[in-house]
Every structure is written in C-alpha cells, then in structure tokens.
Amino acid sequence: MLGPSISIKGSLSGEEDLLIEGHVEGEVSFKRHAVTVGKRGRVDADLYCKSIYVEGEVHGNLYGEDLVVVRKSAHVKGNAVAPRVSLEDGSQFHGTIDMQPKPQAAPAPSPKLPRPATAKTENPAQKEISTDASIQKRV
Description:
By secondary structure, the chain is mainly beta. The chain has a domain at 7-98. The protein has strands at 7-13, 18-20, 23-37, 42-54, 57-59, 62-70, 75-77, 80-81, 84-87, 92-94, 97-98, 128-130, 136-138. Strands 1, 2, 3, 4, 5, 6, 7, 8, 9, 10 and 11 form an eleven-stranded parallel β-sheet that branches. Strand 12 (128-130) and strand 13 form a beta hairpin. The protein is globular.
C-alpha cells in the first residue's frame, strides 16, 4: 500500500498487488498483478497492469492485461485498453476505450481430406453433393 502522505515521481513497478492512496507521477508497471487507485489516490501516469481498479483520480492511460474497472467515485482522463472494461454508473471518464481480446495462438491447420469421387446419376433431377467429410448425399 502507498499511503495518502506518500508522493512518488518516477517509475513504480513490483511483483505484488498494490493499493495507491497517495500521489504517483511517472509510470506504474505491475504487469502480472492488480493495482487499485484508492479514493484518495491520484495518479499522473500510464498504468500497465494485469488488472486495474480506479476509485480515485487518474490522468494517464490504463493498459489492463485482463480488465479495467472504473468505479463510480473515479475520475479518469485517459484511454483504457483491455479485453474487459467496466465503467460504473456515475464514474467520470474522458478518453477512448479499446476492448481487444487477448491474441491466442493460431490453431494448427487441419489436414485436408481428399474429395470423394462423384459418380454420374441416372436421374438428371438428382444431384450429388460431396463434402470434405467424405459424406455423399442425394438430393
């Protein structure tokens, strides 16, 4: 926890969750952890975190790996980028929201099955349909 009387200028990073009740100016980077800007907290910085919860004031961009939550007591001036973004009713948000899902590994290409040979039908009104799954159906 960063208490209300603490003020930091520069980069702030760590390997645990953080509650900010003081003032931070610079950059906040907790990429594998959650950061909460408490009701008395003020952040003049970009935040790069796994999860971001804002109850106080932020002037900067919010980059959440999983989510960004802007509570009703929050004042945010900046952009929010995360797969999930939540703005509570009554919150003040000035910026853009980009909700891109996390990129996932491309699936391995499936092997193509050979198309089955089609035979001529005796009735011209009947057509033969083939699929990649080697199923033939008369219509």
